[in-house]
Design goal:
single chain, rod-shaped, 2 helices
């Protein structure tokens, strides 16, 4: 083994340098490398934790959005039902008002027809009484022309 060391040209300074390198490596490992690796590990854990939290928040947001869509559909259905009920009520009121207006128009028309019939009958009776006097006047005039 000493022959190999001599062929490589290694002397006692190599072992001193190897010892110093090992000591420096252990010191730097504890002072620099381990804290640096711990920092990377903590950063990775925080990133993963934040990503998981963000995914949970996204799931909650999607759940809330689905609930919102369901509630909106329910509210739309309820408002549509109320709209149709009000529309039906309005149509019923319109039909009632139109029926009432038609009944009133028929009543007014019937009263006007009855009034016209009574006036016609009254005029006929007046004329019937005057016919005799008109007939005499006409007859007198005709006779007066002949004679």
């Amino acid at each position: 083994m000493t022959e190999i060391i001599e062929q490589l040209g290694l002397d006692n300074t190599f072992f001193v340098q190897l010892g110093l390198f090992a000591a420096l490596f252990f010191i730097l490992s504890n002072v620099y490398f381990k804290p640096f690796l711990k920092l990377f590990d903590d950063r990775h854990k925080r990133t993963v934790r934040d990503r998981e939290a963000a995914e949970k928040l996204m799931e909650q947001a999607e759940s809330k959005f689905d609930e919102f869509k369901i509630r909106m559909a329910e509210e739309r259905a309820a408002s549509r039902k109320e709209y149709e009920a009000l529309l039906g009520q309005g149509k019923r009121e319109e039909e009632a008002m139109l029926g009432q207006a038609w009944a009133e128009a028929r009543k007014i028309t019937q009263e006007a027809a009855e009034k016209a019939a009574t006036q016609r009958e009254k005029i006929r009776q007046e004329l019937a009484g005057d016919i005799d006097s008109f007939a005499r006047v006409v007859a007198d005039k005709l006779l007066a022309r002949r004679g």
